[in-house]
Write a structure and sequence with these properties.
Length: 141
Amino acid sequence: MINLDKLYLTQTKYKTYQYKRRVPKVLLDFINTVTIRQTVGSNQDEAIVKAVSFNSALQDALQLIEMGVTETIIYDKLSIFNSTSIIKKSIKEEKQPKRLKNIAEEFIKSKDGLISTHELNSYKYVFKEVVASTFKYISKE
């Protein structure tokens, strides 16, 4: 018999399986809840496969944080949890424009003194107006 506790699975009184796991403290910046609860079906084999994929996603996210990758990649890894209330998507959306703005400002600062004032103003316009609005439009789709 399979030990469901190691997979963070429990069987409910309605004979369905539920994945229930406490969120590691490091991932609380990305996840809205302290405990993840997901119904994973009534078939034990399917529930085990989903539980393994959930555990794998959480372990991968922990490794990605240790590696220092961007938050977007971590959010993508955690997107396996289909409940919209679990993942902090609003933070992800808020931080993207700030990151783009920082990249644009750093690029413009790196060109300061190397190009003419007219070219510098052109870069500022392109990065702050055109590129930013383009990314906002793309992210909505």
